[in-house]
């Protein structure tokens, strides 16, 4: 009886360890490509950044929020662009962005974008900025965005 109990307990310990070992953070399952921010004119109060966010895991993940250093801007938000009655406007993505297993979501001019509000200074082409992404499991990922002129961008939009 004693032998069986020890065996059973060691099985419990091992399986618990295995579960923890395999529960990787969402931030570790993300690969960001094509990260860039649009260069702004000198007195611009807002800016936008774009990327493709890839989920390399076999489980859906959710990007909850984005933040930026106070030295760059007062706030950063996840936005999407909507057409309503032929008028283009932007809305914050209150529920974040879901990235399906083994797939990606594109942030592009005219679509989803990262909005930088209250810029402390212009975003200058050739420089870069770091954005911090927080996922549903509270894991965090920092990524560097190259600042580029809009003329080099794939598509153009008012902001
Ligand atoms: Cu926006």
Automatic annotation (TrEMBL):
Residues 1-18 form the signal peptide. The keyword Signal applies. Pfam families: PCuAC. InterPro entries: LpqE-like (IPR007410), Lxx211020-like (IPR058248), PCuAC_sf (IPR036182). This is Copper chaperone PCu(A)C. Keywords: Signal. It comes from the Bacteria.
